[in-house]
Write a structure and sequence with these properties.
Blueprint lengths: L8 H27 L28 H25 L11
Length: 99
Amino acid sequence: MDTQEILLEAVVETVGKIHLRGAEQYKAFIEERLLKNDTPISGTIATRNSFVLFSRCNKVVQSKDNEKIAEMKSDYSSCSKLYIANQAMRGQPRGIFQT
């Protein structure tokens, strides 16, 4: 069954070129550390792979309805805590906000 999910072109290119990039990095590592002795073997590898495949492609946008629901849940939680505090104070809410 086909899900009809389509990948970004950049991701497809990355998957196609990832092996070549790894081979290039390996060759550079061997050349720098073993053949030329420019860098010590225990030195850190400065190259970072910032492939599109491993980075976040789309940012999640929260809709206004979801924001309202989250705010209502927060308000509900606050009211519940105040109610419980009022019960603990035996119905005398004057001391709730005093520290």
